[in-house]
Amino acid sequence: MVVGGRRNTVCFLATFLSLFIMSLLLTNVEAFGYPSTVMPSVSWTNVVPTDFSFWESAGVRPILVNGSFVCGFHCKFEGTACLFAISIFPSSLDSNSSFSTQMVWSANRNKPIGLGAKLQFSQEGDLTLEDDHDTLVWSTNTIGKFVLGMKLTHQGNLILFDGNNKTVWQSFDHPTDCLVLGQRLVSGQKLKANMSSTDWTEGLYSFSINSSNGYFVASIGSNATLDYYQSYGSQRNKRSQFYAIFSDNKFGPFNFLRAGVSFIQLGSDGHLRYFSWVESEWKEVDDLFKDELNQCDYPLVCGEYGICSMGGGCNCPEPDENNIAHFKMINFDNPDLGCSPNVPISCESSSHESLLEIKHVSLSTSYLPDNSNITDIESCKQACLNNCSCKYVVFRSYNPMFGQSLCFFGSEALSFKREGDTYYNSFVFLKVQSSIVPNPQRNLSSPAHFPQTKKRQNVGVILAIILGATFIGFLIFTVFLLKIKKDPKDVEEDYLGHISGTPTRFSYEELKVATNNFSNKLGEGGFGCVFQGTLPCGAQIAVKCLDGFGPVKKSFIAEVETIGSIHHFNLVRLVGFCAEKSHMLLVYEYMCNGSLDQWIFCRDKALALGWQCRRKIILEIANGLAYLHGGCRQKIIHLDIKPQNILLDENFNAKVSDFGLSKLVGREQSQVVTTMRGTPGYMAPEWLNSVITEKVDVYSFGIVVLEILCGRKNVDRSLPEEDAHLVSLFKRKVEDGQFLDLVDKYNEEMQSNAVEVVEMMKVAAWCLQGEYAKRPSMSIMVKFLEGKMDDENEYDFSNPPPPPAEVETHGHQMDAAAITASPLIPSILSGPR
Ligand SMILES: *[C@@H]1O[C@H](CO)[C@@H](O)[C@H](O)[C@H]1NC(C)=O
Ligand SMILES: *[C@@H]1O[C@H](CO)[C@@H](O)[C@H](O)[C@H]1NC(C)=O
Ligand SMILES: *[C@@H]1O[C@H](CO)[C@@H](O)[C@H](O)[C@H]1NC(C)=O
Ligand SMILES: *[C@@H]1O[C@H](CO)[C@@H](O)[C@H](O)[C@H]1NC(C)=O
Ligand SMILES: *[C@@H]1O[C@H](CO)[C@@H](O)[C@H](O)[C@H]1NC(C)=O
Ligand SMILES: *[C@@H]1O[C@H](CO)[C@@H](O)[C@H](O)[C@H]1NC(C)=O
Ligand SMILES: *[C@@H]1O[C@H](CO)[C@@H](O)[C@H](O)[C@H]1NC(C)=O
Ligand SMILES: *[C@@H]1O[C@H](CO)[C@@H](O)[C@H](O)[C@H]1NC(C)=O
Ligand SMILES: *[C@@H]1O[C@H](CO)[C@@H](O)[C@H](O)[C@H]1NC(C)=O
């Protein structure tokens, strides 16, 4: 009667009826007429029952029932994935329990069966499970062992017994991820966790007893390669009220509550937990590894390559010294899922592989086997580079004097944990790969592409040569065609040629295709519109169209080359460009979290950035600007720092965009520059006097910092006249010493960190001084934000940046206002560089 379309109704009915039945009838499950013992030959088919039973609502189709245990087909609600399994059904305890069945054993968790599958207890004494195509899924392999019957005991053990009532086979000998009261794990047996909370197949964690030394060990790895927990049985009794260690290295749950039902389960997160039925629900009574392991000691606590910090959640490995990030977070909303390499490691070209050292971390698991006799770090690293299956290497030197060391290669990526000082020197290196330019011709002629036999290989080589030649011919022909079609006026475009390291040159057509005919507009900047696109290789890009600047100039390409050569982690990277006739387009890496303004001005609590994130963003903007101002060959003044020009990548790393564009369009268009550059409200007061130094960026940075801290726009016309301008409001609040009033009101986390936020407001005040010479340079700002100022003997920073003592507003027509501070800053800071 349970038919797909009426499932909801049926479900409701099921719930209602079962409660009804249960309150009417007693809780003795025998009343439902299921036996606890059967004799062969008999079989059961997994079908939806014709008469309604409350079992069905619990997803169980019973075969044997005894006490609190039921054995039968257990189906997920759709009934498509079923297991032959045993569940605890705490029926004798209260009437709610049918909805809390807990599976404690299953026969076929790696191969679920569907409707029509058949369990057969044959005359030969074999218990077999076949799916609806009669394919054998599971069997007890007990043919010829004189099996006389099968019973489910009141402890939840399924037993096949012979004529002497001797046990031939029992489910207790084949545990899955649970141990119930009365069940003992002995050496040779293993608990194996589920893959995940939703994927119930056998996972990576296991728990067992080492027969040779009597240790209890928990391990990770498809081949149980690494232990993350080891404990000698008899030494442990701290938590023994929850489990007992029996003589002969047996381990099992202990009925400390002296009532009800309990079980121990190895979770898919590697924790071993004790559950008990308490007050009509399953309660986690204890975590059995708790005394020995902390949260970061579990091998995959932060997923692959994730770095666990105590109390600080999960992160990805930091970028290397060239600021190239090699790893990205798989899911920003769920950092526990770990990180993936930006470029997967392919063993083909080891010349592109290198080892990235990550400092102050160690592998999550501490029990590393010493299975190599390498004793120096360089050989250890080299050995990993030479071994394709090595994904990371851990080197420890315990006692250099005696050469005690450990070199461990990992073939399966795990989590790492932040670590302070250890008594040994520890190094962790991750294998990373730089991107490879694919070489289609080499690929084409590679013999590996063709079948192994010699004769066919020859044919393959010949074919490849022919194909290769055709391909080259085609290339030459295409180039020739392009050459003769070329408009002579465009000759300048060839200026760039193809120098490696420079941005890629795209044709207009290519970008048209990549952006799907410029259909997905991301935004509009001072220079033109920005569109989202995808390159054929799959890379996401943002394409900026520079419109209305007339024909492409030679200087354009030179400037593109300059901008394209600026690489910094906190600058949006220019990956390519297009210069064709009057089309000037810039191709940037795509930043999936958009611009900062969408995050700091938004009132949606779910989207609001917390204080730590905002502080990080402030530091990162400062980093990017400091690099533009002094870190690269050519000083670049941005001139248009505002939240719209700060972009956020998938990990909320801030990157400054749009730098260098004023130079792109050329000096002769300086009129364009002054009309388009600089956004009212963010422009420093000296703009009007045409004294343009990099300090104009520092001023704008100060405004952005203030906006980040206050969570409001610099100019907000929806507010009362006197509060509309953030800078004048800030000035007033500073005079009254009421910094606190300004902290983002819509964000609790900002409010609870108000003290630190106010400190940061002083930084903003420092940058907003009317006299540009008094503003700090960006590099000083970075040092200050990083808390490294004490190291600078040159400057006396025993006083933090002063809160502006005397503030005055200059009545500029634009919204620009200025703050002058008492000159506590040493004059050596002054003056543009
Ligand atoms: C069933 O559970 C509910 C809530 O979990 C509880 O309020 C109720 O008392 C339980 N019924 C019985 C008979 O225990
Ligand atoms: C339940 O199993 C026990 C053995 O553990 C057995 O003695 C008892 O008779 C069984 N109960 C029923 C109702 O079959
Ligand atoms: C096996 O147990 C059953 C009941 O538990 C009993 O009736 C029977 O006599 C026993 N058989 C032997 C050989 O002990
Ligand atoms: C593991 O999978 C079984 C089904 O095979 C399920 O009953 C059990 O609740 C799962 N355990 C965990 C910890 O998710
Ligand atoms: C068990 O312990 C012995 C001795 O410590 C060790 O050599 C062996 O590798 C361990 N076995 C397993 C499976 O961990
Ligand atoms: C685990 O071991 C089996 C054989 O023992 C091997 O076939 C398999 O590739 C190994 N898996 C990994 C991930 O090393
Ligand atoms: C360890 O060293 C010995 C000789 O010193 C050598 O024969 C053996 O191959 C080495 N083993 C490994 C795993 O490098
Ligand atoms: C490569 O490393 C794996 C483990 O990461 C190891 O099992 C294997 O023996 C190594 N191969 C060589 C040739 O050293
Ligand atoms: C090159 O070879 C690799 C594997 O050898 C293959 O995955 C890839 O598709 C090939 N590329 C081309 C363009 O044929």
What does this molecule look like?
This protein is an alpha+beta fold and 833 residues long. 21% of the residues lie in helices and 24% in strands. The protein has 4 domains: 1-174, Agglutinin, subunit A (Orthogonal Prism), CATH 2.90.10; 295-433, no CATH class; 489-589, 2-Layer Sandwich (Phosphorylase Kinase, domain 1), CATH 3.30.200; 597-818, Transferase(Phosphotransferase) domain 1 (Transferase(Phosphotransferase), domain 1, Orthogonal Bundle). The strands form 11 sheets. The protein has a 6-stranded mixed β-sheet, sandwiched between helices. Strand 3 (60-66) and strand 4 form a beta hairpin. Bound molecules: 2-acetamido-2-deoxy-beta-D-glucopyranose (NAG) (9 copies). One of its GO terms (molecular function) is carbohydrate binding. Residues 1-31 form the signal peptide.
Give the SSE map.
Blueprint: H1 7-24, E1 37-38, E2 42-45, H2 54-57, E3 60-66, E4 69-75, E5 82-88, E6 102-106, E7 118-121, E8 127-130, E9 136-139, E10 147-152, E11 158-162, E12 167-170, E13 178-180, E14 190-194, E15 202-209, E16 215-220, E17 226-232, E18 243-246, E19 250-253, E20 262-266, E21 272-278, E22 281-287, E23 307-309, E24 313-315, E25 327-329, E26 339-341, E27 353-358, E28 361-363, H3 377-385, E29 392-399, E30 404-410, E31 416-418, E32 425-433, H4 440-445, H5 454-485, E33 504-505, H6 508-514, E34 521-525, E35 528-534, E36 540-546, H7 554-564, E37 574-580, E38 583-589, H8 597-600, H9 611-631, E39 646-648, E40 654-656, H10 661-664, H11 670-676, H12 695-710, H13 726-736, H14 748-752, H15 754-767, H16 778-785
Parallel strand pairs: 23-31, 33-37
Antiparallel strand pairs: 1-10, 2-7, 3-4, 4-5, 5-6, 7-8, 8-9, 10-11, 11-12, 13-20, 14-15, 15-16, 16-17, 18-19, 20-21, 21-22, 23-24, 25-26, 27-32, 28-31, 29-30, 29-32, 34-35, 35-36, 36-38, 37-38, 39-40
Helix pairs in contact: 9-12, 9-16, 12-15
Bound molecules: 2-acetamido-2-deoxy-beta-D-glucopyranose (NAG) (9 copies).
